[in-house]
């Protein structure tokens, strides 16, 4: 029997420590963008296809990528794997094939070209296989006995169809099959478990947690043991999605009793501890994760973030360097490395780190902002303003950037322009006391 697809849940959430504090102003932390999980890419791509099907234009696709802050190279990496799974599957996907071809016809670049290729290959395969599918439908209909009674074997067949759909990212359809399997066999542990995972992918966390709880009750009743670590791991992820960090940690502790080398549990446990402000304990969890998988760049950056939150910036930089040895284009690590160097007042090196981040991802407003702050610390106010302007091109409604821009203009003696920047900050956030104070100084 196909078991729980716990691998869907790897890298379920990530937490990066802050963005640079505004000089002479209130302290503010902003999370830089993270690399999306496979599940998140599936959700965004299927959403994009739905909008294309509803008439989204070429420009609209570009706007979609910008609004969702999608790294197209990462999306391409995921899309090729998604295409391989689609083409290897026996599940019919006519509608999905049509939508992928439609995306390709918009000429939106490599993403569209690859989607078009997958869609056309998938569509051609579906046409050739239609006769075989008709025969399979007849075979399936014959699985029911004359009285209409459904057997456990039929419940398992429905379950397996649900798993196949879930593997393709078609979670709504998967849930329908899991529900049918449960109607036939109410104590179907695997169906309850996988239904919970699919619900989680759709953001229906309360329902997912209820599904996992039912699975746990069944596990207790029937003394199910072999996959306990998977069940506990899944439950921990759902509890985190509900903001119940202490309970999530307890679930991962139980998973680790059954499988001490489950590095994903150690990693997620560390992230949850970090969210509770328990950074020392988080580092211990990250260290355990790295014992079992020392080449996990995401664990290294999270470890660096925890060290940074403890003020141990030199050690944090060492962790970021390890992440970058594994993945040199990990722009979040370059960004956070720049933050740590800034805390150590190593501003030239900090700017170099931000430059590396921007070479990889030039449309990240947080990095431009951080670079502007460090340039200001070096007294390079004109260059700082240029960085702030780049940040505002990407995110024009960021009051902190407008305020910092105003401060840089004031340092150049351009007080009228500075006041205009502060006014923009106050339009966005009228209760920004820092902007009011600095505006008063500029009027002074």
Automatic annotation (TrEMBL):
SMART domains: TPR. Residues 119-132 have a biased composition (Basic and acidic residues). SUPFAM superfamilies: TPR-like. The keyword ATP-binding does not apply. Residues 119-146 are annotated as: Disordered. It comes from the Bacteria. Keywords: Repeat, TPR repeat. TPR repeats lie at residues 155-188, 229-262, 263-296, 297-330, 331-364, 365-398, 399-432. This is Tetratricopeptide repeat protein. It comes from Atlanticothrix silvestris CENA357. The lineage of its organism: Bacteria, Bacillati, Cyanobacteriota, Cyanophyceae, Nostocales.
